[in-house]
Structures are given as structure tokens and as C-alpha cells.
Amino acid sequence: MKEIDPEKTDRTAAFKLWMHAPMPMVTFFKTLNVARLVKLSRRGYKFNMLLCWCIGKAASGTKQFYLLPMGDKLMRFDRLAVNVIVPTHAGGIAACDIPFSDDVKKFGREYDELTARVSDTGQAYEAGDDYMVIGTSALTRSEIDGAVNIYAGIYNNPFLIWSRYKKHLFKTILRISFQFHHTQMDGNDAAAFLERLQREIDSLKI
Questions:
Q1: Helix, strand or coil for residue 74?
Q2: Distances (CA, A) of 4 to 11, 30, 184
Q3: Closest by alpha carbon to 95, among 131, 134, 125?
Q4: Beta strand spans in 34-130 (E)
Q5: pLDDT tier at 68 (50, 70, 90 boundaries)?
Q6: Pairing relation of β-strands 159-162 and 2-4?
């Protein structure tokens, strides 16, 4: 992680416009076809792990994900991680960062190991300051059409929320919300990321 000069990036105008806006977050909603992930989950792979990997893979091909406004600064990262919310054995929840790897099997092994550790100990796991973290929350006990996350001004990371998938005609659909800081990316960048996410889901092979 290192501070960069916004004037030397293509986010100059966005930095000036949105860095000190009272509500700089934007939320998009997208309906995904996750039939491919459901099929793979029947072979023993966790659906949530597969979706998180696809999110990381799609984000890794979107250069804006490696930038993040923090305080009054614009920071650049070299690596990504996907954060998941883990139910703990004590009955609470804790956050867990999974470092992204292009190798879905490696990502899956770390997903299983780290989430199990967090569940057992009840202690959150952070990947470290070198990672730009993509937040996620899977509300799989319910069916919702979308969610707008809170904005506290101290957590500017992109965040995705989804609930249960469901059968719909010849598809298995999942409605997902994607919140991002406008300094980090524009609407076209966010929309392109969501389209890339669908392509990663459709083409995933293990």
C-alpha cells in the first residue's frame, strides 16, 4: 500500500468531486445467473467460496479496485482480498479476509482454513495492510431484492451483499448489490465489473 498523487491518475476529477462529499457511496443492483456455481457446488465446492473467487477474479481485471480513498489520501494496493462474514461457534459473527489467488483451488483451501479458524476462535482475521479488501455479506437465511449498506466515513471499501439464489425459468438467479466509493470508480467501471463477474461465473472451471 502506498499513497499516490491523484493528479497523476485518471481519478483526479473524481477525487476533487467526491472525496469530501457527505455521501460518496454509490450502490448498483444486478441479477446474476449463478447456475454454473450451483452445479459446481454439487461436486463438493462451497457456493459462497466460488462466488467470492469470481468476485476477486473480476475485480483483479478492474484497475480501479487497486485504488482506495482513505482519509484525505488516495492509496494504491498491489493485492486484493475478499472479506466474508463468518458465524462463530459462540453464536456471533466475525470478519475474515481471504487473500485472492488466480488459482481457485488454492483460494478454496485458504477459504476453508481461515473461515474455520475464525469460526472456532471468534476472532476476526485481517489479511494485512498490503491488501485492498472487497467486503461481502451473504444473507442466505432470507430472500431480499437488494441492500444499501451503511456509510460511516471510515470504511470506503467496495462491498457486495446477496441473499438466497432461486430457480427462475431456465436460470438460477441471485440478486446482488454492489456499493463503491465514487472516488474509486465511476458508474461505467462498476457496471463493467458486474458484467465481468457474470462472465467469470459462466466460464469457471475446476
A1: strand
A2: 11, 32, 13
A3: 125
A4: 67-70, 73-76, 79-87, 93-99
A5: very high
A6: unpaired
d(CA 49, CA 108): 6
Q: Letter for the amino acid at 156?
A: N
DSSP-derived 3-state class of residue 141:
coil
List the grid coordinates of 185: 470508480
Q: What is the pTM of this model?
A: 0.96
Reported as a single tens digit per residue, the pLDDT across 171-200 is 999 999 999 999 999 999 999 999 999 999
CA distance 204 to 206: 7
**How far is Cα 34 from Cα 183, in angstroms, rounded to an integer?**
30
Which residues fall within 8 angstroms of residue 78, CB to CB, at 6 or more apart? 1, 66, 130
Q: What angle do CA 131, 134, 139 make, to 5 degrees?
A: 145
Contact predicate 135/157, CB 8 Å: yes
Residue 35 makes CB contacts below 8 A (sequence gap 6+) with 171, 172
